């Protein structure tokens, strides 16, 4: 990973962060990550030098060993943190919460004992046809996002 600061935040912008350096990026298939993200797996990356630059996450102790941070306003999943972390242990931050998530490539899958049986087939699913895509273009042209932009801003105004 690059040595530049990496920024990100929640969907509404109430919580923003910066990490000085990133480490191992993983896809966790455990049931707790599935529930936390409401998805088939949880994508996380080790974040070093993590600081909260606007707001701070709320937490839920998802087990006796760890807690998960999320935005208390919009619910965006943000962190996985070991409760009794050893000195120097990193916080895992949700890859999709980073402003440039495309720069963070997962390198390992974990929690495979709970992997959903169809997870390996997702990339082979069909996509919309050109006609279906064209038919939905008018709908998407009317969508006005309330999502915070993928960069830091001087102020935050809640939407939605």
Shape descriptor reads globular
Approximately how much helix is present in the residues? Answer: 10-25%
The overall average pLDDT, rounded, is 90
The fraction of residues assigned to DSSP E strands is: 25-35%
Poorly predicted sequence stretches spanning 5 or more consecutive residues:
none
The main pleated sheet reads as: 7 strands, mixed
Structure description:
The structure is a single chain. With 160 residues, this protein is α+β, with helices and mostly antiparallel strands. It has a domain at 6-116: Metal Binding Protein, Guanine Nucleotide Exchange Factor, Chain A. The chain is built from 2 helices and 10 strands; from the N terminus they run βββαβββββββα. The strands form 2 sheets. The protein has a 7-stranded mixed beta sheet.
């Amino acid at each position: 990973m690059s040595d530049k600061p990496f920024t990100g935040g929640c969907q509404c912008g109430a919580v923003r962060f910066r990490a000085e350096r990133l480490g191992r990026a993983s896809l966790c298939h455990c049931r707790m990550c599935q529930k936390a993200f409401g998805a088939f797996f949880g994508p996380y990356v080790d974040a070093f030098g993590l600081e909260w630059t606007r707001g701070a996450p709320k937490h839920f102790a998802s087990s006796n060993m760890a807690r998960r941070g999320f935005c208390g306003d919009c619910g965006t999943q943000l962190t996985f943190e070991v409760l009794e972390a050893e000195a120097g242990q990193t916080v895992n931050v949700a890859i999709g919460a980073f402003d440039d998530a495309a720069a963070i490539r997962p390198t390992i899958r974990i929690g495979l004992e709970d992997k959903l049986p169809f997870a390996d087939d997702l990339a082979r699913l069909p996509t919309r046809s050109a006609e279906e895509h064209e038919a939905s273009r008018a709908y998407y042209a009317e969508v006005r996002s309330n999502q915070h932009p993928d960069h830091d801003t001087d102020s935050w105004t809640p939407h939605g």
